[in-house]
Design goal:
TATA-Binding Protein, 5 strands, five-stranded antiparallel beta sheet, alpha+beta, disordered N terminus
Length: 138
């Protein structure tokens, strides 16, 4: 996992990219939701892990997962590679770490490699890089 802005776009050993957001977790999630909507994509769920932990008396750093995608883009991937449905729709983890907000997600290349998605279909996953760049850079 990356911890500096100089290497913020480098995937870690598990094929996860982590970027730093200058905003709080809540503000970053709100911005991500707005961008997803503006692109005509669907938000399937926002999972508030820390909120659910608090409901049962446990503490967890501010941790939310946004699940989103485009059936128009994702369906052809799943038609050609059914197991890709295990990781689709796309997911972005927004979380607090030592006073910083981080945005993490599986790299498109890692997903393509995991499921042997063709280059032609893998292009449908690559938009997450630009989307998360827009979230953390504005």
């Amino acid at each position: 996992m990356t911890t500096t802005s100089e290497s913020r776009d480098q995937p870690d050993a598990a094929g996860v990219t982590t970027k730093l957001s200058p905003k709080s977790v809540e503000e970053t999630v709100s911005h991500l939701l707005a961008l997803v909507a503006s692109k005509g994509m669907k938000v399937f769920a926002v999972i508030d892990h820390s909120g659910e932990a608090a409901k049962i008396g446990l503490e967890l750093r501010d941790t939310k997962v946004v699940i989103f995608g485009s059936p128009q883009a994702g369906t052809p991937v799943m038609q050609s590679t059914p197991l890709a449905a295990l990781d689709l729709p796309l997911k972005v983890l927004v979380w607090a770490d030592a006073g910083r907000t981080k945005v993490s997600y599986p790299t498109p290349a890692a997903l393509a490699a995991r499921y042997r998605i063709s280059d032609e279909q893998a292009v449908r996953l690559a938009g997450i890089d630009a989307l998360t760049d827009a979230v953390v850079n504005s």
